[in-house]
Predict the structure.
Amino acid sequence: MITRSIQSAVPIPGILNVSNASYDIFIESAEKKYAFQLWINEEIEQAMIMDMRDTNTGYKLTKEATAELKKKVLMRP
């Protein structure tokens, strides 16, 4: 589910000026390791992620992906 959310994310144009991330996410497979930061809370419609290797680009998650992550990460019904 998290991988699907990341793959459907859209780059955010411009220079980012963001606060500290809500969560750090680490994904490891047999071949690679990934590290992302996630900005998500109850008030926002679309969460944002950032690859920790490229902090110049943020990615906006879809509304659907954000809703699913809220259920899992924020334990929302």
Observations:
- Residues 69 and 75 are 9 Å apart (CA to CA).
- The chain has a mean pLDDT of 90.
- The longest strand covers residues 33-39.
